[in-house]
Amino acid sequence: MIFVHGETRMPRGSMPRQPSRSGRQEGVRRTGRVPSKTAPPTAAGRRPLALPGLKPKAPAPKKKSTAGYDPLNPERIRQIIAGLDQLYPNVTCALNHCSAWELLVATILSAQCTDVRVNMVTPVLFEKYPTVRDFAALEPEQLEPDIRSTGFFRNKSKSVVGAARKIVADFGGKIPETMEELLTLPGVARKTANVVLGTWFKKNEGVVVDTHVTRIARRLELTRQEDAQKIEQDLMQIIPRERWTDFSHQVIWHGRKLCVARGPKCADCALERLCHAADKTWSTVEIHKNAKP
Ligand code: SF4
Question: Separation of 267 CA from ligand 1 center, angstroms?
Answer without folding.
Answer: 8
